[in-house]
Amino acid sequence: MATHAISGGAAAPGGSGVTRILEAARRRRMLVALPFAFVVVAAIALSIFLPSVWTGRAVILVDPQQTPEALVKAAVPAERERQVLSLSQQILSRPRLAEIAAAQQLPRGNETPNEAAERMRTDIRIDPIGDQSGYAQPPGLVAFIVSYRAFDPGLAMTVTNELARLFIEENERVRARQATTTSEFLDTQLVDIRARLEAQEKRVAEYKERHIGELPEQRDANLRTLERLQQQLQFAQENLRRANERKTVLARTLAEIESNAPANAPAAAPASTDINPARLAAARLTLLRQELAAVEAQAGPNDARVARLRAEVQRYEAIVAKAPPPAPAAPADGQRPRARRAAPDNPYVVSLMTQLDAANVEASALAQDIASLNGQLALYQRRLENTPRTERELARLAQDHDALKEMLKSVMARRGEARIAADFEQQRKGETFRIIESATLPARPTGPNRLRLVVMGLLLGLGASALAVVVAEHLDSSYRTPDELRASLAVPLVAAIPSIRTERDRRRARRRRAFATAAVAVSLVVVAGAASVAARKFTPLVGMFTPASAAQR
């Protein structure tokens, strides 16, 4: 057995970190190679056996309304991004996708159409055309791409074209429905506003009928009438004053004549109680007829004074016709019977009595006229006082009426526009979707990215090898160099004896290496087979290594 000096041996523990790592990797080269080989083989198998993904793509252009909106307003607001989003939600709903899945026989095994629809939704993309697409987007237009990826290129093309067709049909149906709904809604609003306007007009008419005479437009007429009534009242009051004065003068004159006449004078004026009423009525009737003839000749038969005088004539005619002859007065006891006083034959006295009677009649008529004028003045004064309140209420009613009229005009204008827009939608002259590029059979697959998968396998293999070496070094507690042993023991180290291997040991080592090599080869084959099975069974792995932007290229 050969001996080595204490100073000889492996690298000192104070070597660099890189040297120690390389030494550990050299010493555990099998532990480095095995994880790396397994991971790389699995990655290569996956990249080989993963099925290819094919993407169909169709380009849809939004055609604007053919007639300028200054002439015909669109029935549906042109919020195109929101419109496309709404259509996408409707088309990508589970019932729609389930119909497509059932028609294209997409369910796998025991998978239901609804489950296939959920899987389809993850494979459908709707994207606006970007600069990388190679399409120049015209001003004022919006285009977007509908894409679908599948493992069969024909299926990808068919489903993509079906989705594009659904976009066209759904857009036409939605726009026609919205235009019709808008027109029907405006018709309902128009009927309601017309009913409200008629009710408001009825309220205004009823209010005016209830407050006739107090309306603002009658204020000037009421003022003129009030002034005229005040003038008539002043005139009547002045006439009444004069009539009363005339009565006083006439009564005083008659009293003086009666007091100055002798008791037995037949021509003396008697007391007014001894005068025959029929004689007085006849005298008054004569004067009234003369006055009636004069007024009728001057003012015509339709004048109000003529009617009043005719009524007075008829009244006095009735008095004259019905008045009984005067009975003689019986003498008092113990007195000599006095001869009955005859009616006054003096024309002057008769004239005074007639004038007094006329003054009494005139005063009574003037008093009635004054009372009537005062009532009319009070009525017109109340009307003028109530006019501001009536004006405010009418202004409020008129404001509501005008607001309803403006609303009616606005709704009628909008209804006309809605009908024209609905006709445009029916004739397909409004904003429409148009397929400018249908989906064709894809020329090459869009995924998976096999090179990236292999690169990721290499990196993961290196990481697994490094991790295995680190763990093995951490768990290994043996001493590799004399310096490590000397640092751990308190006794001095005399010599280091290397391992002595015989021929038998070498044969045993060769057998172990051969067995390990065979085991590793079998394991690599198993790993490759498992990776190929996983690539075919677990199709979501394809999505992990297929870029989402592949449909836009």
Verbal overview:
It is a single chain. By secondary structure, the protein is mainly alpha-helical. The chain contains 14 helices and 4 strands. Strands 2-3-1-4 form a 4-stranded antiparallel β-sheet. The radius of gyration is 64 Å and the shape is rod-shaped.
Task: Name the features.
5% strand, 3 domains, Bacterial polysaccharide co-polymerase-like, 4 strands, Helix Hairpins, mainly alpha, four-stranded antiparallel β-sheet
Percentage of residues in helical conformation: 55-70%
Question: Spans of 5+ residues with little confidence (pLDDT < 50)?
Answer: 1-15, 67-72, 74-78, 130-140, 263-275, 329-343
Strand order of the largest sheet: 2-3-1-4
The count of strands amounts to 4
Please identify the structural class as seen in this structure: mainly alpha
Q: Count the helices. How many?
A: 14
Report how far the terminal alpha carbons are from each other: 74 Å
CATH topology of the largest domain: Helix Hairpins
Summarize the helices and strands and which ones pair or pack:
Blueprint: H1 17-27, H2 29-49, E1 54-63, H3 80-91, H4 94-103, H5 113-123, E2 124-128, E3 143-150, H6 153-210, H7 219-260, H8 277-299, H9 304-322, H10 347-426, E4 432-437, H11 450-475, H12 482-488, H13 503-537, H14 540-544
Antiparallel strand pairs: 1-3, 1-4, 2-3
Helix pairs in contact: 1-2, 2-11, 2-13, 3-6, 4-5, 6-10, 7-10, 8-9, 8-10
